[in-house]
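Input sequence (112 aa), recorded before submission:
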Amino acid sequence: MNTEAMRTLTVSLSPTQIRRLQEAVESGSYASNSEVVREALRLLKERDQAREHLRADVQAGFDQLARGEGRAYDKTSGRQLAEQPVGKLLLEHEHRVSRQQRAALDRDRGGR
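Predicted structure, token format:
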């Protein structure tokens, strides 16, 4: 649970952003504008962490190539790889994230 004291902050939003904020509250999905903003910030943090993990995986791949540990693909095998469902690739990426990293992400998500 977050024990930080809440503070008020004034922000400027476009009319479209204001409508989206109001729609989220009016739909009943969120209790207040503040709750929508907190959720958006949580999702931003989660996206940034996922991007950083992906960046680290890409760097690890480049490092493997530099060590001569790469695999050769011809047009057919490369096409087959490209046609794999994105969901499968994302799951494979998720499985590479260590238990410790997943636990840290879960803590940041509030135990979800």
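Checked by second reader. Residues 33-66 form the longest helix (34 residues).
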